[in-house]
Design goal:
Rossmann fold; alpha/beta
Amino acid sequence: MKNVTVYCGSNKGKDPIYVKAAQSLARELIKRNLSLVYGAGNIGLMGVIADEMLSADMPVYGIIPQKLVNIEVAHNGCTELTVVETMRDRKWLMAERGDGFIAMPGGIGTLEELFEIMTLNQLTYIHKPLALYNVNGYYDKLLEFLEQACEEGFLRKNQLDTLIVDDHPETLLDSMNTFFTTRPLS
């Protein structure tokens, strides 16, 4: 794994723990010499993780639609900034560029990206590790819902089991590095 796509909020959240978690994840990516692929925002947790990576001179690849550039949320400090036409284009390029994916706490856009990658893996358009960085139990209720979807027969347990969940960046990335060799997608 060389490029890690991180999905995260354009807000920082109410609790400072989320900013600290974004910084911790960035430091672990730096330690492992991994590049960041993200939505190119200069605000919220997106800006925090990008700034932390850039302060260590690590590659940051931002992908952003022109509409968001127009409202001045693009991070102009990115190592490489790719401007696309639509959100759909952005998501596809982020999926192509990343060797693995982490969903940090975020809003509806982050959830959409999470489920899109789960779907792409399920349908074997891609075969890449996907992780929830479950800071402060942020995703606990979502995980309960996904378990219920399994119980009700709308989601296969083996599909849910491909989702890596952790609240420590070190073990999260360790699991991503070994995930598909130890639990292949089926």
